[in-house]
Amino acid sequence: MSDIYIKGWLHGHEDHKQKTDVHYRSLGGEGNFNWRFLFPFHYLPAEQLCTIDRKEHFWSLDKKETKVPPKITIQIWDNDKFSFDDHLGCLEMDLHHMQRPAKSPEKCTLDILSQGQESLVSLFQQKTVKGWWPCVCDSNGEKIIAGKVEMSLEIVSEQEQDERPAGQGRDEPNMNPHLEDPQRPETSFLWFSSPYKTLKYILWGRYKFLILLFILLFFLFLFIGVFLYSFPNYAAMKMVGPFGGPAKGTE
């Protein structure tokens, strides 16, 4: 059971990382988000590089132009309320030489990350690329699939952005395209914000038989306790009579 969210940023823009909302209590490891990331950047088509104005050092007064490749990083995280969040998997892609995505999660394998040069695609040429990509992690020195992410990546110019505005996440203006709230199961909720659902899906769903056994034992011990407490008084009343005095004999 995981509380999943997605984090993403462009290379060189680590100070402007974005993340989705949290899909709480994912029972099967599936997360639904319907979330929009917006990454503004300056691009040099002739050099196929992005430019960033930033200080070389903390104490530098002036900013310096730096050129970096247009790389995107997507990470899957497990939200933890009582300790640091757990990093589950990562995907890094050069937007000029992107791995061609799979059309379904079943076909999304590690083979996608080892595609030949002839299979790679450029988002700057395609403008829009949609599909499934694997997020990987290291396990004993080997890369394994930690998750699969379905994304739609789109490159637009500043003019197109002005003509077709879109808000981050599901914020207004929620258009181009309009994003509906994700269809999440009833078990996806923040546990302390809904006590009834917590009792219904977490406690009752997982510990139903233990709860019934506890209730049965509680009433059994309650009955035994009441019996042991009341029996001496009842027995004494039987011995001395119902009104606290000896029983009258017959003449």
Detailed description of the structure:
- This protein is α+β, with helices and mostly antiparallel strands.
- It folds into two domains: 2-184, no CATH class; 189-246, no CATH class.
- The chain has three helices and ten strands, in the order ββββββββαββαα.
- Strands 1, 2, 3, 7 and 8 form a five-stranded antiparallel beta sheet that branches. Strands 4-5-6 form a three-stranded antiparallel beta sheet, with no helix packed on it.
- The radius of gyration is 32 Å and the shape is elongated.
Task: Give a short overview.
The chain has 251 residues and is of the alpha+beta class.
Keywords:
251 residues; alpha+beta; 2 domains; three-stranded antiparallel sheet; elongated
The stretches of 5 or more residues where confidence is low (pLDDT under 50) are none
Q: What oligomeric assembly is this protein in?
A: single chain
Main pleated-sheet profile: 5 strands, antiparallel
Beta content: 25-35%
User: How many angstroms separate the termini?
Assistant: 82 Å
Structural classification: alpha+beta
What is the number of strand segments?
A: 10
Residues in helices, as a percent range: 10-25%
How many H/I helices? 3
Mean pLDDT: 85
Instruction: Indicate the radius of gyration in whole angstroms.
Output: 32 Å
Series of secondary-structure elements, N-terminal to C-terminal: EEEEEEEEHEEHH
Shape estimate: elongated
Count of spatially separate domains:
2
